[in-house]
Amino acid sequence: MTLSEKYNKIYHMDCLKGMRELLDDKEVDVVVTSPPYNLGIEYNTYNDNLPREKYLKWIEEVGKEIKRVLKDDGSFFLNIGYSNRDPWIALDVAFRLRKHFVLQNVIHWIKSIAIQKEDVGIYPNVRGDIAVGHYKPVNSDRYLSIMHEYIFHFTKKGDVKLDKLAIGVPYQDKSNIKRWKSAKMGLRDRGNVWFIPYETIKSREKQRPHPATFPVKLVELCIKLHGLNRTKLVLDPFMGLGSTAIASIRLGVNFIGFEIDEYYIKIAENRIKQELGKAHRSKGDKLTIASTREINKTRTLTDYLSAYYSISEKTR
Ligand SMILES: C[S@@+](CC[C@H](N)C(=O)[O-])C[C@H]1O[C@@H](n2cnc3c(N)ncnc32)[C@H](O)[C@@H]1O
Q: Could you tell me which residue ranges the DNA methylase N-4/N-6 domain spans (predicted)?
């Protein structure tokens, strides 16, 4: 199978089988994924209620396989949440993977935050109290609503150089720019707290019929942080509705993914079609695609994807 036949697809397959059958050792630059959390979440087919030890063993198997396919200087971003009843699950997973990876960074994905003016001081941009983002409010007198999830950044040796300013944020106080050499671009390190709200949707059933997606922007930040120039292939073993595929298309990098649920793959493919429909020629080698209708009518999605990506067979 050539790379253009293999890449930029979501395979309807168990991810362990998929990685073993389709991916060579050290083929992948970046893994961004969110596995089932074993919190009894209602997926279309997957049973998210395994005995804990069985679940952790399985996650470890997946982790081992990810290590095999990951380049030595690759990055593995594992997004995982938890519940108030089971706050340890995310940490238990990280602890299992500790046997195989170095935890290079712990990133906190913040879904919603409240900032009070009185705590901010003299920041002209903050004019009053603000509360932004979306979260599921908890109905309890002992638990707080959970507004964050983890993104564990695992690497093989803990020494992967990152492109921090690719996701840098502008300095508020521009006088810092003169003071520090690294501030040359007017940007500073974003740090490990990332506020990424879910997109506002009107109908969950129609627009996001999946109980546990992550925002496309989360994936974009991970890939850019690893370094866009040295990312040839992004893997998501648990593709869900295809957020990793959409982010990869936006950034012009190849992806490969696995998902056991056919219904989710269908929706992911529709999202990809819409994304390609929106794509505009940004570089000389990129294809401009007029509309989703055109994709449906004339050529298959695979045709369009392989035209969108001009893959050199010498990628590796
Ligand atoms: C947390 S969701 C991922 C959602 C995805 N990040 C998104 O934004 O849409 C986990 C997904 O893993 C899928 N899944 C569960 N077991 C799997 C397996 N063995 N191989 C591949 N996919 C699996 C589930 O069907 C579910 O869609």
A: 28-269
